[in-house]
Write a structure and sequence with these properties.
Layout (H helix, E strand, L loop, with lengths): L2 H16 L6 H15 L4 H11 L6 H11 L3 H15 L7 H10 L2 H15 L3 H14 L6 H7 L3 H11 L7 H12 L2 H9 L2 H12 L5 H13 L3 H9 L2 H9 L7 H19 L2 H9 L2 H11 L7 H14 L47 H11 L25 H6 L15 E2 L8 E2 L8 H4 L15 E3 L2 H4 L7 H11 L11 H4 L16 H16 L7 E5 H7 L12 H4 L10 E3 L9 E6 L2 E5 L14 E5 L6 E9 L13 E4 H5 L6 E2 L2 E11 L9 E10 L6 E5 L6 H13 L6 E9 L5 E8 L12 E7 L6 H15 L3 H9 E6 L4 H5 L25 H16 L6 E8 L5 E4 L9 H4 L6 H13 L20 H9 L4 E7 L15 H32 L10 H6 L17
Length: 1047
């Protein structure tokens, strides 16, 4: 008889006896024992065949065994059955164990086994059965994402703590899975709090003493438990008082006696734990009292050269920096010198450190998010509160949608159809107070009988069918001026918080990047190590050899109250080769989008730079843009930006800063170039202004620049600048060259808090009898909600260029769609050199659910435009996309919304067509070489509910609601792998997005027909990106018109 036949016979008997377990106790015990014996057989063939029989995807044997375990009363049988399940999911049982683990998680086996463990401990009937249960839970704990929540709801946290108390000194088979379970529970902030109250600190210290310092899996697991528990402040305090810090320092002092991978992991978890402890004052005192700084500094001196130890060295330097006393950032106050009196008091909100999903996002790897409990609370608290406007308040947006008005729609929704007289002498204002929101007039309304007498031409009778401009900064300009003159005139009309003294030369001359590919930086590991150690040594010294302040924005503002009068200009060309007094560099940042607060010379050619926080803030220091002059050519100048806040940066992964030379531009080589060497990013001793209770330090971005010319005037920037004045100047330029077959309107949506106009653009083709504008779909695009993400403006620039060009592809796009574009949602942040926020110290991309007309006018009225389109015009936008930049990832990718991947259970019950949101990313992937399809995601969490992407998807029913993310750095896929993204690439991405939108409708319909014809995709199954990309691609004729030659 074959082994398969024996297995089938035993399985059949098991299923037969499982129907009535009480009547077949002996038979069930015998069959269970035989099956367990076969799963643990020394005969590999027997074992593999038996386990495969239990782990088949469509098999219900695991369900049968689980049900039996809940009902059977015989402990011998239960032990055998539990042993079978453990063998199915044992780490050494093969790759297919994951199928069994997923099945058990789906069957909610965690609850079953936790209840059994609690019951066994209360009755104390079978130690072997308890051991099997704990072994199973040790595996489930690593796979069940809600394991901690389930254990807590079953009141099982103290139970597992009791198991550790009982078994920590036995070193038996149960201790390892108990530590795995404790590690999982310690990852959750709520279960950690329960453990701390139950006295886990004492237990874990005793466990460490019994496990000892000898490298083992148990020691590694125990240190990992320490790593997670020390995120709790109360645990840290008890741990310090118990003397555990001394034990950990003593253990780390033996780091050179460990070997292999175990050496690295033990050191890593020990350092994580010490870092968490040292974030508290009592922890830092404990480390210093046991000479911990000396032990750590000795590691710096003798750290192995292997690359894997670079992260350990960085963490050691971070701990030493935390323990350095009285090393404050050299500024009078960490509050930004740029202050603005808000019309109403803002509510303090938490700001994610990444654009939309990152999520990314800002927390360090030691921060923990209680995802399980957040989801539970969400079910209780439901969705965030949202503001719903009445239809009468939406009538103000009628003028922005004049091309889509019809009698029927206006009458059915009670929109006022009475004619409005021309109002060129004043603005229509929603509020009487302070005119924080105002809309310039757009059209003169005609009487009803005239306005709607000709459906195809009624709206063009009141406006020029080529363009209509209502931006005062653009309207006041006269044709025929040079671009430089136009830019200076526009920049002079911009209202800023800090008075500007000039316009930046690169912005004035519309500088971009060279077309050549620029390779990513190869990080010099030894140099970076040396810089980290030098930073620590400098922090340990009480005095510095040189500390000369060469630029101080606070002093300039206090001593010279400059009021901007007249026209801003730039005289950089006249200043070339003029040597300033002294031998140090000169700096300036008082121009649009500029950011530099203070410069301190610490060496003959080394400078510490401090960036300006966002307006009304003490945080968000990443973006920089400043002028440097008075340099000597071809000598290395070191720049250390010492108040960076992000926990990591692409500066560590190949990104170089940008350099612009005015001399090179005069010589005929204009453009921003990637420059710099010895680039690295690490923590320094300066304590940050983080609101977190635990102490954190700032990070340093350091790089070395060799300037090409003596006494040149150069500009350094984090990324290619794209200012508010640049946007307005480009709108003026597009006006001058507009073709007659393009409808292009540029209007002022509203005024920002500081009374700068926020443009909204409309692009489409003229109306015709066979192609009515009212029949076209709406595409709604936004960008630059985060001012530091200048790459999003370059992408939007590429999209707008494509839509306004005289090509067949662009003409087809205009004939299919009406494009509504808000190209700069946060002009105040852009103008004032902010990185994340505007004037309110709030992330505007977290205000979409309930924006304030007074504090967030751009979000409030952009949402109002969408609201009007959906509720009044009854036209749901076909696509919504918000353009962003990403500081931690490479490539380009999209985030979308899938109800099946929502955090909310009611969303997952909805029926959806996956192609609706998966098609655009796939088309982009086929058009753009730097587009990374695997990075696209369509899930979203509760804390993303207030973002543009999710709000538009949920409130307005836009199925294709996206965030486009683009790296500041470059690509690690495709032909441009290993190279920076430049302005040509960025505009090319925007161009390709326009092409993709052109192809989208036909492509979606084509694929749906193919899928339905061949039944490729089950309607209950969401196709993956890979499944879609494997389908045959349609040849879009529009692609040949793309101007994206290099990307």
């Amino acid at each position: 008889m074959s082994e398969e036949t024996i297995n089938e016979a035993l399985v059949e008997k098991l299923q037969q006896y499982a129907a009535k377990p009480g009547d077949n106790v002996d038979q069930l015990r015998s069959v269970a024992a035989k099956l367990h014996s076969r799963t643990t057989s020394q005969d590999k063939q027997v074992k593999v065949l038996t386990l495969e029989r239990f782990r088949r995807k469509k098999s219900d044997l695991l369900t049968v065994i689980l049900n039996l375990l809940e009902t059977v009363r015989d402990h011998i049988t239960a032990t055998s059955l539990a042993g079978i399940i453990y063998e199915c999911i044992s780490p050494k049982s093969g790759l297919t164990r994951n199928n069994a683990l997923r099945k058990l998680v789906d069957l909610n086996a965690t609850n079953v086994f936790v209840k059994m463990v609690i019951q066994q401990l209360s009755t104390n009937t079978s130690e072997s059965f308890l051991q099997e249960l704990v072994l199973i839970l040790g595996q489930l704990a690593q796979k069940d994402p809600k394991f901690s929540l389930k254990v807590r709801l079953l009141n099982g946290v103290k139970t597992f703590h009791h198991l550790l108390k009982v078994h920590y000194h036995n070193h038996n088979k149960m201790m390892q899975p108990v530590l795995i379970i404790m590690k999982t529970l310690a990852r959750n902030v709520n279960t950690t709090a329960l453990l701390v109250k139950d006295g886990i600190a004492s237990t874990i210290e005793k466990t460490l003493l019994h496990v000892g310092f000898y490298p083992s899996i148990r020691l590694r697991l125990l240190l990992n438990v320490f790593n997670h528990l020390t995120k709790n402040n109360n645990f840290c305090v008890k741990m310090v008082k118990g003397g555990t810090v001394q034990l950990l320092v003593k253990m780390f002092d033996r780091w050179d006696k460990y070997e292999g991978k175990m050496k690295y992991k033990i050191c890593s978890y020990t350092l994580f734990t010490l870092q968490h402890v040292c974030s508290l004052k009592i922890g830092r005192s404990a480390l210093r009292s046991c000479s911990g700084q000396n032990v750590l500094y000795k590691f710096c001196q003798f750290c192995p050269d292997e690359k894997m130890y670079d992260t350990l060295l960085a963490r050691v330097c971070n701990i030493i920096s935390l323990c350095i006393e009285k090393k404050e950032l050299p500024v009078a106050t960490e509050q930004s010198p740029a202050q603005y009196q808000l019309p109403v008091k803002t509510v303090s909100t938490e700001v994610d450190d990444e654009s939309d999903d990152s999520g990314d996002a800002s927390a360090d790897d030691e921060n923990d998010v209680d995802k399980e409990d957040s989801e539970l609370n969400l079910q209780l608290n439901n969705l965030p509160q949202r503001s719903i406007r009445d239809l009468d308040s939406l009538k103000m947006y009628t003028k922005f949608w004049c091309e889509l008005q019809t009698d029927q729609k206006l009458k059915s929704d009670s929109i006022d159809n009475e004619p409005i007289a021309p109002q060129h002498s004043h603005h229509f204002s929603m509020y009487d107070r302070d005119n924080y929101f105002s809309i310039p007039p757009t059209i003169t309304r005609l009487p009803n009988n005239e306005r709607h007498s000709n459906t195809s031409n009624q709206w063009q009778a009141s406006i020029d069918n080529r363009s209509m401009y209502n931006l005062s900064a653009v309207d006041s300009l006269t044709p025929g001026k040079s671009r430089r003159s136009v830019y200076c005139e526009v920049a002079s009309s911009v209202r800023s918080i800090i008075p500007f003294v000039k316009v930046a030369y690169p912005d004035m001359v519309a500088s971009e990047s060279p077309t050549v590919l620029e390779p990513l930086n190869n990080k010099e590991r030894k140099t970076c190590r040396a810089k980290m150690i030098a930073c620590v040594e400098r922090g340990l010294k009480s005095e510095s050899n040189m500390a000369n302040v060469v630029y101080d924005l606070d002093t300039l503002l206090a001593n010279k109250r400059v009021e901007k009068t007249g026209k801003l200009i730039n005289n950089d060309e006249e200043r070339l080769r003029l040597k300033e007094s002294g031998y140090r560099l000169c700096f300036e940042s008082r121009f649009e989008s500029g950011n530099l607060r203070k410069v301190i010379q610490i060496g003959s050619r080394e400078y510490d730079l401090i960036l300006t926080p966002d307006v009304n803030s003490r945080e968000h220091c990443t973006w920089f843009y400043f002028e440097v002059s008075n340099m000597d050519a071809n000598l290395p100048y070191v720049f250390n930006i010492i108040n960076c806040e992000k926990s990591n940066s692409q500066f560590n992964f190949g990104m170089k800063p940008l350099l612009y030379s005015v001399k090179e531009a005069v010589l005929g080589n204009p453009g921003w170039v990637r420059e710099g060497s010895d680039i690295c990013y690490f923590r320094n001793p300066y304590p940050s202004s983080s609101k977190n209770q635990k102490k954190r330090t700032y990070l340093t971005a350091t790089f070395t620049i060799k300037f090409p010319h003596n006494y040149d005037i150069c500009y350094l920037a984090y990324h290619y600048p794209y200012t508010y004045s640049q946007l307005l100047t480009h709108i003026w330029c597009w006006k001058q060259s507009l073709m007659s077959n393009i409808v292009f309107r540029a209007e002022s949506l509203c005024l920002s808090l500081n009374k700068n106009e926020i443009p909204v653009l409309t692009i489409t083709a003229p109306d015709s009898y066979n192609n009515l504008i009212t029949d076209r779909e709406v595409i709604f695009l936004t960008a630059r909600v985060h001012p530091g993400e200048s790459n999003s403006s370059w992408i939007m620039h590429g999209t707008l260029q494509y839509l306004l060009e005289d090509s067949l592809a662009a003409a087809n796009a205009r004939m299919k769609y009406v494009f509504k574009v808000v190209p700069m949602l946060n002009p105040e942040g852009v103008i004032n050199g902010c990185n994340r926020c505007g004037l309110t110290n709030e992330d505007l991309n977290r205000r979409w659910s309930q924006p304030s007309a007074d504090l967030h006018p751009s979000i409030y009225h952009t949402k109002g435009l969408l609201d009007y389109c959906v509720r009044v015009l009854k036209k749901v936008p076909y696509v919504f996309c918000d353009f962003h930049g990403h500081s931690r990832r490479k490539n380009v990718f999209l985030y979308g919304c899938s109800s099946q991947e929502s955090w909310l259970e009611v969303d997952r019950d909805k029926v959806e067509e996956p192609l609706d949101f998966l098609m655009l990313p796939n088309i982009m992937s086929s058009l753009t070489t730097g587009f990374a399809l695997p990075l696209c995601k369509f899930s979203f969490e509760r804390h993303k509910e207030t973002t543009a992407r999710v709000t538009v998807w949920r409130e307005f029913g836009v199925k294709r609601s996206y965030t486009m993310e683009c790296s500041y750095c470059g690509c690690d896929v495709g032909p441009n792998k290993g190279f920076h993204l430049n302005t040509t690439h960025l505009k090319g991405i925007g161009n390709n997005f326009g092409v993709a939108i052109s192809c989208l409708y036909e492509e979606t319909q084509w694929r749906l027909k193919i899928i339905e014809a061949n039944q490729v995709i089950d309607r209950d199954h969401i196709p993956t990106n890979k499944e879609l990309s494997n389908l045959e691609e349609q040849d879009c004729s529009d692609s040949e018109d793309s101007s994206d030659d290099n990307y």
